[in-house]
């Protein structure tokens, strides 16, 4: 099979396409014939700075969609021919999704609803599961379904990003009023396409005043991508007993907390990282995300604010470079025809 590999960390030039033996699934594993692979910032960061384990060689990629074509001993719930999407395919193992086949434990494989394209399936994983955990980090919503966030207001920082877009779509599906912050008219259009009810340009608006005008009692939850830059704003606009769920360190590695203002409101700061969530939260996210997909509430494409950028397997290095350069939308690798 063809696989993209690297044996040392560094720039995208360390990636090469090689022929490798077809892997066989062991007990509790399935083999997936990859149709489409997704590229996330975590992929190029692992490649550039950390192998993610004591491996001689790594196939990058956490996310993909494809078809089960072999089943290991003791596997239940999956059969050859099943369409699936993946979660954390390359975490703590060397074989990721930038390959014609990948072997994964069943905990990392999720049935792909019939209504979903492979483009959508490969776009779920990291963005959608991160968004799910952020949206369920506050009071009163451990799971997502229609109505679970009814009556609440969610602020999504950076609504034009992949996680931000998924958070908007999932929050709207769950019944929330969604406010998002963006930095340009182009990104405002993307956030509105995703379903945001209110868009605030933090470069031209008084963001705090505008958000408090929209939500006079304060927002219930903030999905935060840049805690260092936005924490003071988040504290100001949150309601009593609100939550900041932060998943990245864009804008700085350290944040200054307004101590009195935050404890006076009984606020919660909830950090999240997919790799350490635990199987229970990953399983809950997989179930809810799949339900949203089946309902048509979670989609990709320019019409919902997620432009798609396709690269052949041989150009995976260019796909990594595009994500590292901040490509707006979703970067996908076309591994096979549908």
From TrEMBL:
It is an enzyme of class 1 (oxidoreductase). GO terms for molecular function: quinone reductase (NADPH) activity. It comes from Nocardioides marinisabuli. Gene3D superfamilies: Medium-chain alcohol dehydrogenases, catalytic domain, NAD(P)-binding Rossmann-like Domain. InterPro entries: ADH-like_C, ADH-like_N, ER, GroES-like_sf, NAD(P)-bd_dom_sf, Zinc-ADH_QOR/CCCR. This is NADPH2:quinone reductase. Its EC number is 1.6.5.5. Pfam families: ADH_N, ADH_zinc_N. It comes from the Bacteria. Keywords: NADP, Oxidoreductase. Residues 10-333 form the Enoyl reductase (ER) domain. CDD domains: zeta_crystallin.
């Amino acid at each position: 099979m063809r696989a993209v590999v690297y044996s040392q960390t560094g720039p995208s030039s360390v990636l090469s396409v090689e022929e490798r033996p077809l892997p066989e699934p062991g007990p509790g594993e399935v083999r997936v014939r990859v149709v489409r692979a997704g590229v996330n910032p975590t992929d190029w960061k692992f490649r550039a700075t950390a192998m993610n384990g004591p491996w001689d060689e790594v196939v990058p990629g956490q996310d993909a969609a494809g078809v089960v074509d072999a089943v290991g001993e003791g596997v239940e719930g999956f059969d050859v021919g099943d369409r699936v999407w993946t979660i954390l395919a390359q975490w703590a193992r060397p074989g990721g999704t930038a390959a014609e086949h990948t072997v994964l434990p069943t905990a990392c494989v999720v049935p792909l609803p019939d209504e979903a394209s492979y483009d959508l399936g490969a776009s779920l994983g990291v963005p959608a599961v991160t968004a799910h955990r952020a949206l369920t980090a506050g009071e009163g919503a451990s799971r997502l379904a229609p109505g679970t966030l009814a009556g609440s207001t969610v602020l999504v920082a950076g609504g034009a990003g992949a996680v931000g877009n998924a958070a908007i779509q999932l929050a709207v599906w769950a019944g929330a009023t969604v406010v998002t912050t963006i930095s340009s008219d182009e990104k405002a259009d993307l956030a509105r396409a995703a379903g945001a009810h209110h868009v605030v340009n933090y470069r031209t608006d008084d963001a705090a005043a505008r958000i408090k005008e929209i939500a006079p009692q304060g927002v219930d939850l903030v999905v935060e991508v840049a805690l260092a830059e936005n924490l003071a704003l988040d504290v100001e606009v949150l309601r009593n007993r609100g939550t900041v769920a932060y998943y990245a360190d864009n804008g700085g590695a350290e944040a200054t907390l307004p101590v009195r203002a935050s404890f006076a409101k009984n606020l919660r700061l909830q950090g999240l990282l997919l790799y350490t969530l635990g199987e229970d939260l990953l399983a809950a996210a997989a179930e809810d995300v799949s339900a949203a997909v089946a309902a048509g509430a979670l989609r990709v494409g320019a019409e919902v604010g997620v432009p798609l950028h396709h690269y052949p397997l041989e150009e995976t290095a260019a796909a990594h470079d595009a994500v590292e350069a901040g490509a707006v939308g979703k970067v996908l690798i076309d591994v096979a025809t549908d």
